[in-house]
Each structure stands twice: as C-alpha cells, then as structure tokens.
Amino acid sequence: MARDYYEVLGVSRGAGQDEIQQAFRTQARKYHPDVNKDPNAEERFKELNDAYSVLSDPKTRARYDRFGEDYRKIPEDWEERVGAGVGGGGGGFRGWTTSGDGDRVRFVRGFGDDVAGGGVDFEDLFGAFFGGGMGGRGGGRMDIPGADQEAELPLTVEDAYHGGRRTVTLAGPTGQRSFEVDVPPGVVDGQRIRLAGQGGRGTGDAPAGDLYLRVRILPHPRFRLEGRNVHIHLPVSPWEAALGATVPVPTPGGTAKVTVPPGTSTGRKLRLRGEGMPNPRGPDGDLYAEIRIMVPPHPGARERELFEELGRTSSFDPRSER
C-alpha cells in the first residue's frame, strides 16, 4: 500500500492550499538530493513531489479524497460524464467513496435519494447511464486505466550489491504470476523498481497500471547497512592491534585489505572509501570496519608464557587510560 499523501507531507486532510505548499517547501528543502546526501533522500524527495502534485491541484485532490489510491482509475471529467449520463434527472451524486472489490472499483452510497445505502457496481452503474456498460455499445464508453500495484522484493545484501536478472513470483487472487526483473546494482532498502503495465487491469481499451517492487534488504549475519554505507565488525589479534598489520576484510563485493594502525583498540573504526554499496548516480558508499580485539580462547603453553612475560614487563594499565 502506498503511503497516504497527507501523511507524506505531514498535514491534515483539512489543510488549506497554503499549508500544503508550505509543508512541501519545508520538506523539499530538507530532502533535496543536492542538499541531503542520505541515499534515501532522493526516494523521499520523489515521494514528496508525488504527494504535492496531487494535493496542490484542487481537482486531482478532490478525486484523491473521494477515491483514495484508486483516484488514478477515475478520469478527470468523471463528474461531467456522470452528469451527462444522468441527464439532470434528479439528485445527482453525493459523496462517493470506494471500497476494494478485486480489480473493480465499487462505489458506496451515492445516487441522489434513490440509493440510500449498499453498493453500486461501477460497471452496472455506468451501464445504466450509457446503455451497455463501460465497454459495451452506445455512446458512453468509459475506459479506465488499471491501478498501480506494489509488492515486496526481498534481497540479500550481496544480491542488492551486484544486481542482475531475477525471476520474481507473486501470488494474487487469480493465481501466481512470474516476472523477469532487472535489479540495478546498488539498490537500497525501500527503493522501488517499476514494471510498466504489470499492475491492475484496465477496463475496455485502457492500459494496465504499473507494478512497483519495493526492495527490502534482508538482515545479514555480518553486514549492517546504513543507506549505502556498510558496517562490519573486524576481529584482530592483540599483536595485530598493538603492532599494526594489514588484514583482509570482507565486503559485499568480495575481499579487500585494510591497514590496522599500531596501537589500535577495540571500537576504533577504519574507513574503506568506496567499498560500500554502489551508487549509479554518485559516489559509492563506504565500508566501516569496527575493530574487535580477540584473544586465543585456549592459549597453548608457549602462548601463556609470552602473555605472562608481557604482563610482567609492560607498564600499560588500560584502566588508567582516559
């Protein structure tokens, strides 16, 4: 389900045009990709634009208020068409709302004083007006585009990093459907992939809607994502931390090398520039390796001797360090 446009802008449903415009300007300045470098800012900015384009137009907003997500199914001149079909025959329509009914739009409560309640089927209703239904004979054919739909696309961190062609199978009321999807490298959590014409069916000769696959990055035992940046714990030995070393570090794209400076302690973060998630529109993300000093769980005799000698020789007191 798409987010409510009023929620996206952070305004109430009764907000005036000035309030809607101000809310959009405030958030657009905050999330504009030229200002906000968060990888999710671009998607958020697009969402704001979508919401504002609908709510800033009184006619489009009126259709959205009445029909919700299904407003795209309703032509802009639906009131004129209905009025012409009624022919001024008393009452007109009042306060239409929608409820889900499969691929059809069902209008509830609404024809003058003749319908006090219950559902009015869209096709039956327009069939009565225009003679023969939306796709039938007579001069009142109404072809309504199909609704856009959305589904979830789970990906591992590695799949999101590399991208590639995938087969996606979705279950629906009419059975399963499979799609071939080109996943671009470096997709991030929440990003949408559009499959044109794979959404809800249109009526008559109207086109089908689009299907949007929203990416969900699955939890990973090793990598943690923050936008396009990747965080990982990097285990090192006490001598590597004390003396310095070059050690391998896993990344979503393979294995890289990182230099551990001498005197490194647990918790220090080493940055590997560009080793995070790829970004087709800008710099790649970075990888942050957080040091974890590990000691031998079962030291051998010689190891114990060396540690004991170090303990007697060293004047280092970690509890006195600030």
Automatic annotation (TrEMBL):
Residue ranges, compositional bias (Polar residues): 312-322
Region (Disordered): 252-287, 299-322
Compositional bias annotation for Basic and acidic residues: 300-311
InterPro entries per record: DnaJ_C, DnaJ_domain, DnaJ_domain_CS
Entry keywords, A to Z: Chaperone
Top-rank lineage group of the source organism: Bacteria
Residue ranges of every copy of the J domain listed in the record: 4-68
Pfam families assigned: DnaJ, DnaJ_C
PANTHER family registered for this protein in UniProt: DNAJ HOMOLOG 1, MITOCHONDRIAL-RELATED
Protein name: DnaJ C-terminal domain-containing protein
Organism, scientific name: Streptomyces rhizosphaericus
